[in-house]
Amino acid sequence: METILKCEDLYKKFGKKEILKDVSLEIKEGDILGFIGPNGAGKTTTIKLILGLQSITSGKVTINGFDIEKDFTNAIKKVGAIVENPDMYMYLSGYQNLKLVANLYNIGIERIDEVVKLVKLEKRINDKVSKYSLGMRQRLGIAQAILHKPNLLILDEPTNGLDPEGIKEMRELLVRLAKEEKMAILISSHNLAELDSFCTKVCIIKNGEVIETSEISKIKHDNDNESEIFEIDNAEKAEKILSNDLKNNKILGLELKNNRILKINISKEEVPYIISKLVENDIKIYEVKQEEKTLEDAFFEKTGGNVIE
Amino acid sequence: MSKLIKNELIKIFKKKTIYITMILIFLLIIFINCVNKYSNSSYSVYMYSDNYKNSLREELSNLDPNSHSDVTLYINIKSELDLYNLMDKYKDSDWKLSIINDRIYNLITEINTLTYGIDKNEEQAQKTTKEMETLIQKLDENDWKYFANEDLENANKKIEDLNKQKEQTEDTELIKGLNIEIENAKVEKEIAEYRLEKNIPYGVDYLNTALSRFQTASNTLIEYDLENKELEFNDQKNYNEALCTREESKYIIETGIDINKSDTLKGSLQYFYSQYGVFIIVVIVMIAGTIVSEEFNKGTIKLLLVKPYTRNKILLAKFLTVLIISAFVIISTILMQTLVGGILFGFESLLEPVVVYNLSTNAIQEINIFAYLGIQTLAQLPIIILLATLAFALSTIFSNSALAITISLLGYMSTSIINQLVIVYKLTFMKYFVTMNWDLSQYLFGGLPNMEGMNLGTSIIINVVYLIVMLIPTFIIFKKRNIKNI
């Protein structure tokens, strides 16, 4: 799989304020990268550096092998983007907005119609954009971003203003674009539940620093923090028995949820040991399962909540 | 690049602003043309209201001609009333009114003074009355040529007298003064001859205006010519102006064509830029001052900047668009004026040439009206382009349309004040300043520039330098600019 976008040690300073500190990320074709972080973490700034909208203090952005600062036109050729809000020309109709983009890329009318159908705006495409809702503008924004069949799509908070159905449609559209057109997609969002269901990779950013980049499954089952949920008949008794093992580091953590549920923080290899120990003490075991973390849990764990520094 | 320009044009022409401003200009053109057509139709210099005459009569009846204190006022009012009564009799003829005012009024006053004044002289009064009656008889006979012949005789006699005086004196100062007077008398003679030859009765029409302008200009030229020394720059300018006036007046008198007539289509196009220049500038500056900053303020600049075009190309496309729009605004305003003027005044005056005196060839030049308009447009082009560029640069650098438009328009409006101050106080270092150089019409037809030492070549270079000095930082700043959050 080919790498489409590569950011290496992006560093950005406005005056004395450091906005980004060595942000690195990479997207391959067919990847959907969820770019998450609290407000003010530097998501939009990173996107602007990638798109050449702001100058890079140090570091490097390569798109399709072209350096964004040194070879802007080649680098940006196969990129489609929405930055911040889907700002369109309000006094023009949706169609005229798309026509302006089409003019710049030599795109025919058929492609415009095709894209309009794709984002389901056929009925309102000839209305002035000033009459559109935010959700419709979002769709139009996506339409103009994918009009020229880019292989890198960058969307800044694209689910803003979309209703649940719209979000579902967009999700399906993006998955399809990634699969069929082999597009690499970078999507920043606050809607963590959204990214959870369809991103292939996640990048978490906080205070201008990337804290985590990995496959989505890896974050959810992070080895260091793996916990097993035991459903047993006497959890209080079990806690007492196992507390000895806390001292010799076989068990990293114990948490009594209620009298039947005990959460134990251990590595997978220790599970048989715990079971045998409980059986020895006549404790009945009904179920043992690995704890599933949502992306949201992982996010809060990593970022420590939403604090703007 | 052409695609970028095409898109910019689409964006401008899909906006209501340009249509609203063009419609406003259209309405304004209709208004100005209507005022031109209907304002000077019923206008006479010799109209006095009946109310005024009645009040004079009343005042007169209260005065006693035998009282020592009233007599002067009595004579004045009586003479005025007599004048009006006489004028009422001949109110249908301009030349008669003119003669009554210029010549008979003096006689009326004289008669009244001799009749009612302190030194009464019945005999002399009788004589003057007779003299007046002869003149009035000529009025009745419709014989204006009598007066012209009289002017001619008087001028001849004056010349003869002055020549005699000159022979009798040795005083150079006096001779100099006499020479000027002789030349002036010759001009008077010339005018009387023109009247008779070209059949120009007295009155207030354009031919009489031309005659009097011819006389004033000739007098000015005579003074300079007999001064006989190297003219300073400002004197040379006055001299040139008088020369143009004299030659153009001469052309009017000799051909009988009113070249300065403004209430025709040709006239309105001839003075196109002095009438509509400011409106054209306002529209162009408005567009130049918004084309970049509006995209910043609305956030749409991001759409444009992530397209595969360098920032230099994007900004250059916008600048070229401003120039294209400027041409569009100028041409459509000319077309609107041609249409409205043609409908109100008729199109036939387009065949008449514009007549100017060319100082470099020392000859009258006849130019087709559209060629003349073309020359004027070229001469105004630096103003238009530089102001558009100023608005464009300011709006790009500060992304503030209001600031860009206001400063540019203020700059335009203060031009004449700045130039006047520079010329009056002879601030020679200011001859490199833009406002002195951007109106190239100062060089047309051999004209002298605003200030000594300026010439067309340097003016063009100065304009180009200003253009480049404004554009370079604009492009650099636009290229380096961080697109902040909106």
How does this structure look, described?
Chain A has helices at 43-50, 72-76, 94-105, 109-118, 134-146, 164-180, 192-198, 216-220, 235-247, 271-280, 295-303; strands at residues 3-14, 17-28, 32-36, 58-63, 66-67, 79-82, 152-156, 184-188, 201-206, 209-215, 228-232, 253-256, 261-265, 285-290. With 309 residues, chain A is of the alpha/beta class. Chain A has 2 domains: 3-217, Rossmann fold, CATH 3.40.50; 223-290, Alpha-Beta Plaits (2-Layer Sandwich), CATH 3.30.70. In chain A, α4 crosses α5 (134-146). In chain A, 35% of the residues lie in helices and 27% in strands. Chain B has 3 domains: 2-40 and 263-480, no CATH class; 45-142, no CATH class; 144-260, no CATH class. The longest helix of chain B is centred in the C-terminal third of the chain and has 35 residues, at 311-345. In chain B, α1 (2-13) packs across α15 (311-345) and α12 runs antiparallel to α17 (401-424). The model of chain B has no long low-confidence stretch (mean pLDDT 86). The two termini of chain B are 27 Å apart. Chain B has 19 helices and 2 strands. Chain B has helices at 2-13, 16-39, 50-61, 71-89, 94-116, 122-140, 144-168, 172-198, 206-227, 233-255, 265-270, 272-288, 293-298, 301-305, 311-345, 369-398, 401-424, 434-437, 456-480, and strands at 354-358, 363-367. Chain B is elongated, with a radius of gyration of 31 Å. With 486 residues, chain B is mainly α. A two-stranded antiparallel sheet of chain B has the order 1-2. Classes of the chains: A alpha/beta (309), B mainly alpha (486). Chain A binds chain B through residues 14, 44, 48, 51-55, 72-74, 76-77, 79, 81, 83-85, 87-92, 96, 99-101, 103-106, 144, and chain B through 3-4, 6-7, 10-11, 14-16, 298-300, 302-303, 305-310, 480, 482-483, 485-486.
Secondary-structure element series of chain B: HHHHHHHHHHHHHHHEEHHHH
Number of helices of chain B: 19
Helix/strand structural class of chain B: mainly alpha
The count of strands of chain B amounts to 2
Task: Report, as a whole number of angstroms, the end-to-end distance of chain B.
Answer: 27 Å
- Global mean pLDDT of chain B: 86
Name the largest protein-protein interface in this structure: A-B, 33 and 25 residues
Extract low-pLDDT stretches of chain A: none
